[in-house]
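I'm stuck. Please check this protein.
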Amino acid sequence: MTELSGLLVTVAGATAEIEDSTGQRIACHVRKNADTVITGDHVYWQLQSDGSGVITGHAPRKSLLYRLENAHKRKLIAANIDCLLIVTAPPPILSENNLDCYLIAAEILKLTPLIIFNKTDLLDTGQCDTLHARLNVYRRIGYDILFTSIYQPETLMALATQINHRAVALTGPSGVGKSSLVAALTGEARVRTGAVSDHSGLGRHTTTTTRLYHLPNGGSLIDSPGVREFGLWQLTRQELLQGFVEFKPFIGECKFRNCVHMHEPACAIQAAVAAGKIAPNRFAHYQQMYQTLIHEKT
C-alpha cells in the first residue's frame, strides 16, 4: 500500500486529523504499534478504502515540546516548533517567578521565547509604567517583549509580523487570553474563548485538545492545554544554570569548581549580582529553585 506524507493537525488518543500535500483534511487512526505522534508531526500514512487514513509513523523532529508530569514521565505536546510565546496578563499584573519557569523551559528545550503581555487595555498609565520597569530586567538580558490587546489592532499586527513564517506554540496560565489571540491571529472564528471566573479570579481554560492553525502570511501556531505550566522536576544543576541566560558569562569563573552559587566565597555569579550585572530577583529565584530541586532529590 502506498505510503503518503502529511501534517498532523490534532490528535486525541488513537484518532487524528492530518493535512495532506494538497491541504485537504483527512480523519486518521494511529496504528497501534506506531510511535507516539503529536500535533506538528510530519507523518506517514496510508489511505484506506473508506477515505480515512492510518498513520504509520513520523519523520524525524527538529524540536519537541513537552512537560514533565512527574519525576519520571514526559508528556509530549507538540513537534517541530521554533518559538514559544509566553503569554501573561492582568490580573495579576505579573509573576516573575512563573515567567522565569517558562523561560527556563524554553532555554532547556532550545526554543526561542517571546514574552507577550496581553490585555494591556485593562491597565492605566501608572500600571503600564510600573510594568515596563519590571520587564526591563528581561529586555536587558535579550528577551523580546510585546504588549498586546485584541482591542488594539496595531499590537496584533506587531505580533503577527514577529511570528510570520515561524512555527510557534502558546503557553501561559488560564485567563490570559491565549484563545482570543489565536482567533485574532489565525482568523479562526471557531476557536473557543472564555471568561475569567468571578469566584476564583482564574481563567476557564478553553482549549481542550492540542491543535495546529495556519497563520495567514505563512507559518503555524499551536494552541494546547498541555503548555499552561511546566514542571521542572529532575533538572540537573547544569540545566538550571542554562535556564538563566545572564549567568553564562560567569559560569566557570568561581574560585571553587563545585560552587553552586548559593553562599560560597569567591563566587563569580554572586559577585556579578553585587556589581549589578545580574538582577537580584532573578538570582533569588535561582536560589529558590536550586533549594527546591535539592529537596525533591533527597
About this structure: The domain at 4-58 is CATH 2.40.50.140 (OB fold (Dihydrolipoamide Acetyltransferase, E2P)).
